[in-house]
Design goal:
single chain, D-Maltodextrin-Binding Protein, domain 2, Solute-binding_3/MltF_N, Circadian input-output histidine kinase CikA, 30 helices, alpha/beta, six-stranded mixed beta sheet, transmembrane helix, membrane
């Protein structure tokens, strides 16, 4: 995307600010904003459907670059934009007829300017391309072999005439078949051989294809009917505000929607293909500035991507210095070097050509904390930083063999400053022994572009080969490859005292004091033991209290939720029905707070146990989407799901706790996202040895973000950050603490990256065993397994009168015939006195007088009658801990439902057990 006149806009904005400040001294200043009186109704925007630019799903939801940008523009106009799917041919007619107010994307020709109003700035760039299937025998720009080739195109596309002119200019004539109404039909025609190639806009996400020609790029705009200057004036103002206030917004949209898709392969010329055939291996040396293992791993991963695109072997050489890398290139041992700064003047001295940039990053200026001196600079010998510093007047340079050596010179005060790239600087800033004494200043304004350097001893054709391979790797993927992170290394005692000599004195004093304290410790040891016993007693009391609180809170909650459900179903008056619905929502939220507190207590007391099982991934993620859907729809948030890496269908893990982890992260992302925003949910699978799979799950939002200070304690219990963009904080602050504890129980890690106003990204890394596909038909169609419950006799053992009344009414609403027993003994007596198979199921409360539910269950199972061993028994208890579930199963229950029980859950369990024919 080209940013038209951005520099000029920024300059004039600065002049305007100075003018306003001057005027403010004299009196009140009024700033004119374009009139948006048309904001009282929805503005209709016509647009042809194009992948990545504008698409409409089966539910009628509009997505794509154009939709996202128009939503952002609406923030400044106050207008609502409604998209209308049209074609190029019909779009102009509808604009003239007033059926739509705006039309895009259109080209601003001299003839069109007489008929329409155009936006002042470019909406985006159009680079039309000619595509063929990956295995097609066509070469890039091989015009002579394309004569009589059939090219498919969209009907009335603006690029059709441009293609014809472009090919005629190169002496090529093709059969243009511009009869297709949409991109789907065009792609189908290419796949089934109806056409040899297809013309498409590069604004469309390219997948499973190769580009054999690229037309000259053109600017595209948005158009309005001639004379509608007020609407276009408002739009122009808003578009400039987007570029000035959020300069990276449109770049991010490009990354999301216009980057290269999957399985895109380079289309080489005949000469390039011949070169690759004669040179099956290329040797690339790593720039000696990068020495750490994680940096080298990133280089190898990037090389593997290039190897797959180029179809040849690429050997990676590692060296121990910058000069050694240049020597390999000069001697011919290496054909290329990466990553190298894309400075043409500098690389001329190194006798190399440069590819297009594939990576951009800033550099660090490193000094002693609080120092501003830069007179003496320690720099890496023969590096690009040394080249830059050599042009600074009055600065003395100290060449160093390694960045570590340069850092040490700054620490010892022998140099004022050193410089290094962002990846290296991130390593040093992550280590306490450096970060505690040094200042790391990131120079983002001087961001460096990095490319592959090709030796001029090689054939220049290698440049275009590398460029095409780089262009077929999605930028987001390259950025991810080089997103190197470091963990803090443990500092040795020697390093610690060397960096902090003053502490050595304190340490000596501490050793002496410790000897004295040992004597005192012996005296106080007995008192400590007594205190420990008191703490153990207090912990037991706490656990008993939480168990009682769980039961006592859940019992009335069960009544509240049950009555709210019945009231909502039976009430016919809309206002009252809404009251019941709000009671139900509030009660559900209160229950989630209770669950968070109890979950945290169970984790602290080490009472949570994992139960790994084979889990089919597709239905597992579908269940998460089903649970999240109402929350997403409430805030109109789009959930973007992305699956990467190996195709994995079944893994072994604890289904319930994994679901709890992912739902907590997704709910958190939605909670702190802006209304109408998006959340990205990514799963990446990498197979390892011994049937293990490295699973990396990320949840990214684009909401309010968080401060760096808060990120240090985000996983602590009860922590919440007060943010002026979201002043009303809800929840207990336990969700992320629970996530961290559960992930660590699974031997995994969870991390977070965030920036205020930009959003947050949570990453969960796990290693899980892969198991064979185990789906055995248990996931059946819900409609086919529904069992009519009407007429079934169910025995309900419940001592609480109100809960018993509510449960009976719920059962009767499905035609079930409930019979109540007030305690466990009465339940056993009723069951024993009934005919065989009279009761289809038993619903058993646990805490009851005379005989509790566990005793009653054992007594029923011990009866000498045909149905005693098989009748389904479901525990319905306010006791919700793992040990409670275990005790229920051991007593003979078939399932354990924790109160408050959702009616849907109760009926599903009854249908499940009765449908299985357990009785």
């Amino acid at each position: 995307m080209v940013r038209i006149r951005r520099g000029a806009a920024a300059f004039f904005s600065l002049l305007l600010l100075v003018f306003l400040l001057g005027m403010a001294k004299a009196g009140t200043v009024f700033v004119a904003v374009p009139d948006s009186t048309q904001g009282s109704r929805a503005i209709r925007v016509g647009c042809p459907e194009m992948s990545g630019f504008f698409e409409v799903d089966d539910q009628g939801n509009s997505t794509g670059y154009a939709c996202e940008l128009m939503r952002e523009i609406s923030m400044y106009t106050g207008q609502t934009y409604t998209f209308v799917k049209t074609s190029y041919e019909d779009g102009y007619k509808q604009l003239q007829a007033g059926k739509i107010d705006l039309f895009l994307p259109v080209q601003k020709t001299e003839q069109a300017k007489k008929q329409y109003e155009f936006s002042a700035d470019v909406f985006c760039r159009d680079n039309a391309v000619l595509l063929v299937k990956p295995n097609a025998g066509y070469y890039f720009n091989d015009f002579a072999r394309w004569n009589e080739m059939t090219v498919g195109a969209l009907r009335s596309s603006q690029d059709n005439s441009s293609l014809v002119q472009y090919l005629q200019k190169h002496g090529c004539s093709v059969k243009l078949k511009a009869v297709y109404s949409d991109l789907h039909a065009l792609r189908s025609a290419l796949e089934n051989g109806e056409i040899n190639a297809m013309l498409a806009s590069s604004n469309q996400t390219l997948t499973n294809c190769k580009v054999i020609a690229q037309l000259p790029s053109s600017d595209v705009y948005i158009a309005a009917k001639k004379g509608n200057t007020a609407l276009m004036k408002t739009f122009n103002y808003a578009l400039r505000q987007v570029e000035l206030n959020t300069p990276h917004f449109m770049d991010d949209l490009e990354m999301d929607y216009f980057s290269v898709g999957k399985n895109v392969m380079p289309a080489y010329t005949i000469s390039e293909a011949k070169y690759l055939g004669l040179n099956p291996e290329v040797t690339v040396v790593v720039n000696g500035e990068f020495q750490r293992e994680r940096e080298l791993q990133s280089m190898q991963t990037f090389i593997d991507q290039l190897k797959q695109k180029m179809g040849i072997q690429i050997r990676l050489l590692r060296v121990d210095s910058v000069q050694a890398a240049y020597d390999k290139l000069a001697s011919g041992e290496a054909d290329a070097i990466l990553p190298i700064n894309r400075d043409v003047n500098w690389t001329k001295t190194q006798n190399m050509w440069l590819t297009q940039p594939f990576l951009s990053m800033g550099s660090y200026r490193i000094t002693l904390a609080g120092s501003t001196a830069q007179q003496t600079a320690a720099v890496l010998k023969d590096s690009y930083q040394m080249y830059l510093c050599s042009n600074v007047k009055g600065q003395t340079l100290i060449p160093c063999d390694t960045t570590d050596q340069a850092i040490d010179l700054v620490l010892r005060g022998e140099a004022d400053v050193t410089y290094c790239n962002r990846i290296e600087g991130d390593y040093f800033s992550s280590q306490p022994k450096y970060s505690s004494r040094l200042s790391f200043i990131m120079d983002d304004k001087g961001r460096q572009q990095y490319a592959v350097g090709i030796s001029k001893k090689e054939n220049a054709i290698l440049i275009s080969i590398f460029n095409k391979a780089i262009g077929c790797i999605p930028p987001s993927q390259i950025k991810s490859i080089f997103a190197v992170t470091y963990e803090s290394e443990k500092m040795s005692l020697f390093d610690y005292f060397q960096l902090n000599p003053e502490i050595l004195v304190g340490f000596s004093i501490s050793v002496t004091a410790a000897a004295v304290l040992l004597v005192l410790f012996g005296v106080s040891n007995a008192a400590v033991k007594r205190k420990n016993k008191q703490l153990e007693s207090a912990m037991r009391a706490k656990s008993d209290f939480l168990a009682r609180m769980s039961h006592d809170l859940r019992t009335p909650m069960s009544a509240i939720l049950g009555l709210a459900h019945l009231g909502s179903e039976e009430c016919t008056e809309p206002p009252v029905k809404e009251y019941f619905s709000k009671i139900n929502s509030s009660s559900t939220y209160l229950l989630s707070l209770i669950n968070d507190i109890l979950d945290m207590s169970r984790i602290e007391n080490k009472k949570v146990q994992l139960h790994p099982e084979p889990v089919e991934l597709e239905p597992f993620y579908q269940s998460i989407d089903t649970i999240m859907r109402p929350l997403l729809e409430e805030k109109q948030i789009r959930l973007v799901t992305d699956k990467k890496g190996a195709q994995v269908s079944c893994l072994r893990f604890d289904r319930l706790h994994m679901q709890q982890v992912l739902l907590n992260l997704l709910t958190n992302a939605v909670k702190f996202s802006n209304h109408g925003g998006r959340v990205r949910f990514t799963q990446n699978y990498v197979r390892e040895e011994n049937h293990m799979v490295h699973v990396c799950v990320t949840v990214q939002d684009y909401g309010i973000g968080m401060s760096e200070a808060f990120m240090q304690r985000i996983f602590h219990p009860f922590e919440q950050e007060h943010n002026r963009r979201m002043p009303e904080q809800t929840g207990t602050g336990l969700g992320l603490s629970i996530v961290k504890n559960l992930v660590e129980m699974m031997d995994g890690t969870v991390s977070v990256q965030s920036e205020l106003g930009e959003g947050s990204t949570f990453t969960v890394d796990l290693r899980l065993p892969e198991v064979p596909h185990t789906l055995q038909g248990e996931e059946t169609d819900t409609a086919s397994c529904q069992l009519a419950l009407a007429g079934q006799h169910v025995l309900l053992a419940e001592d609480h009168p109100l809960n018993a009344e509510i449960t009976c009414r719920l059962l009767r609403s499905r035609g079930i015939l409930p019979e109540r027993a007030a305690d466990g003994r009465e339940a056993v007596e009723r069951f024993a006195a009934s005919p065989d198979h009279y009761y289809s199921a038993v619903l058993m409360d646990i805490r009851m007088p005379i005989m509790n539910g566990l005793e009653a269950a054992r007594a029923i199972r011990a009866l000498n009658r045909a149905d005693a061993k098989t009748v389904p028994m479901l525990a319905m208890s306010a006791n919700a801990f793992d040990e409670d579930v275990r005790e229920s199963m051991q007593a003979g229950m078939n399932a354990h439902l924790a109160k408050p029980i959702e009616p849907r859950q109760l009926f599903e369990e009854l249908e499940k057990w009765l449908a299985n024919g357990s009785n």
